[in-house]
Structures are given as structure tokens and as C-alpha cells.
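User: Sequence in, structure out. Go.
Assistant: Echoing your sequence, followed by the C-alpha cells.
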Amino acid sequence: MTRAFRSLGPSALASKLDHKPIAIYHHWRLSLQVLNAATVVAKHTSGLCNACRIASGKTNNPVAKRQFVQSAKDVANNTANLVKAIKVRYVTSS
């Protein structure tokens, strides 16, 4: 959905786009559900990365330390790519 339509309800959005109100409503609701799920994933990612940072700081094993750091980077990068793909699909599309 474009920024201009995000604040509109399903009926107003349907009249603006001249589509059937039910189809617009379902797309609008699905978009909100997906965005909410992406928010939850991002919060869990933050917690997981912090756990990796803490574990890395507590170990004396240099191999394990590098693995914890690399795992945190991988999780953060993959989550960022997922969020970017979700935004492209559900926020910028109408």
C-alpha cells in the first residue's frame, strides 16, 4: 500500500481505487497481519543477536566467539532482507 492510502479504512480505500471493497479489505487486513508478524520477527531477532553477543563475551574459546558473532550477523542480515522483501510486497504495492 502506498503511504497516501495507509491511513484510509477499507471503504475509503476501495472508493479511491475503484475496486471491490471486499477484495481491498482483505488485502489491507493481510498487509497489516504480515507487517505485524515482521515486527515480531524483528524483535526476536534483536533478542537472539543480544544472546549471541553475551555468549561471545562469556566464552574463552576463540572459535566459538567467532561463531557466535558470525551467527548474530547472519541472523541480522537475513532478517533485514526479509523485512525489506515484506515492505516491497506489502507496503509499496497497492
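User: And one key feature?
Assistant: The chain has a mean pLDDT of 80.
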